[in-house]
């Protein structure tokens, strides 16, 4: 059983606008990861891939972690950002309550990313 650990910069929760980017396609799975609706997760899967789309009320970076124990240690962490209209993503692993180092093998595939008035969206497999 994996716990989803949400990673957001503290300053990223400040909202500049109310764009709320719509999902890039239809997903059959969706959840809001916080009470205020600042982080949304859409996903779908098939026999070979899981496609995830994370929307965060942030103009910084957004990330998500999958943990066997609910904490950062041993979590598989994906985070990314959009700078000058170009999306970036990084596959990392948790070693504790510190900046997670990059995995030796980058297994994440960035499909899309955008920012709009204080919201950041990353779509990846």
TrEMBL record:
Residues 1-19 form the signal peptide. Keywords: Signal. CDD domains: DOMON_DOH (cd09631). InterPro entries: DBH-like (IPR000945), DOH_DOMON (IPR045266), DOMON_domain (IPR005018). GO terms for cellular component: extracellular space; secretory granule membrane. The keyword Signal applies. The keyword Signal applies. GO terms for molecular function: copper ion binding; dopamine beta-monooxygenase activity. Residues 37-125 form the DOMON domain. GO terms for biological process: dopamine catabolic process; norepinephrine biosynthetic process; octopamine biosynthetic process. SUPFAM superfamilies: CBD9-like. This is DOMON domain-containing protein. It comes from Ciona savignyi.
């Amino acid at each position: 059983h994996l716990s989803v650990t949400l990673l957001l910069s503290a300053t990223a929760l400040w909202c500049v606008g109310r764009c709320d980017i719509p999902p890039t396609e239809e997903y059959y799975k969706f959840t809001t990861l916080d009470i205020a609706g600042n982080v949304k997760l859409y996903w779908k899967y098939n026999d070979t891939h899981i496609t995830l789309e994370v929307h965060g009320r942030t103009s910084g970076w957004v990330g998500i972690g999958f943990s066997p124990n609910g904490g950062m240690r041993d979590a598989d962490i994906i985070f990314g950002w959009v700078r000058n209209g170009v999306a970036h993503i990084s596959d990392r692993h948790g070693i504790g309550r510190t900046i997670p180092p990059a995995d030796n093998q980058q297994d994440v595939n960035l499909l899309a990313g955008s920012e709009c008035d204080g919201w950041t969206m990353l779509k990846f497999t």
